[in-house]
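Thread: "does anyone have the structure for this chain?"

Original post by V.I.:
We have the sequence but no experimental structure in hand. Need at least a predicted one for the grant figures.
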Amino acid sequence: MVYWNKDAIYALSSYKILAWPVGVWPIDNDIFYSKIRYLFVMISEILLTTTLLMDVYFACENSSGDPIDTYVVASSAMLVIVKLTMLQIQRSTLSTNLCSAIQDWCSVKDARSREIMIQHARTAKIISLSLFYCGFVSLIFYLLRLLPFVNATANERTFVLPMSCLFESISNLQYALITFYQVIQLFMTYAGNCCTEGIFVGITMHLCGQLELLMIDFQQFDRRNNRGGGSIVEEFVIRHRKILKLTENIDDSYSIIILTQIFTSAILICVTGFGFIISWRIHDTVMMVKSFVIMIVMLLQCFLYSYAGDNLRDQSEALSFALYDSNWCDFSPSDIRDLAFIMIKTNIPIRLTAGKFFYVTRATFTDILRTAVSYLSALRVMIEKRETNS
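Reply from O.Q.:
Generated one for you, tokens below.
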């Protein structure tokens, strides 16, 4: 049983709210029921992806769904399958990181250290809650299909998702049940995507705070801290190795997820950007706003990984300078030799990777944005030429 104090609840409880329903909260005590929820979500997302792709394959004439919506939801469902599968595989690893974070919150003593941890937790909450709220707005836009004033064919049944080809001859009860299940599927898609990013930014920013505390502690280190005749850098080495291990856990758990997210986001930004251009020309306000919100969500997801990865790198590089600026000239010769080896270790910055192929930094985010804008410019020119020729 893990004890949560009020600071740990402030820092991590918001991520649990979305991770618990989909069965991937790593420190859930009811493992059996957690796996049941996880299997239900996976089956629902597989059914959602299959039915959407079948609707695209059949392409029947009475389908009222926007093809861009179909591609966005299908891609998001595939992302959820990949993300939740990786979180389930790395459940014990992430549990180690979360338990360590909760222990850090419970063991912090001085007010300055707590304030630094609170600052990093607040930054993580601002980023993650921005993603949560934007994703929720996107979810509401899809649910607007059920409202009469959005429905373009009022005499026909309107599904939340474009599946009219597959459910042409059904009773009113079946229609109500299918619609209700589609709403649940959309919520699980939203929760699965957002909770994955929330857990990531929460534990990553917490490690950034621990690195900053480690840097401050060593800057203020002097010979009075040498207790019991042991090495004055022993405690530093133990804490640094622990942080390195926790960072490796994050990279192992999220490397495939980050690669999949970046690749999918780049495609969806181009697709929704194309929809935004089309809706701008035909003056479809609802589609414009919806496409814009989806692009913001995709950009936030990429920015979240890039921002956290860059912060880890910056804090680890600052640690090396903190060692050099410390009062090392007063240390014993053996401690100075140990310090030299520690500086060699800290000169290798901590970095997160995408599929072990490339590092995730702010440059990654700008590359994605620049590539997407280039494709959108090419699409806009193509549309203008087509209108001119016609």
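V.I.: this helps a lot. The first strand starts at residue 353 and ends at 354.
O.Q.: and The chain has a mean pLDDT of 80.
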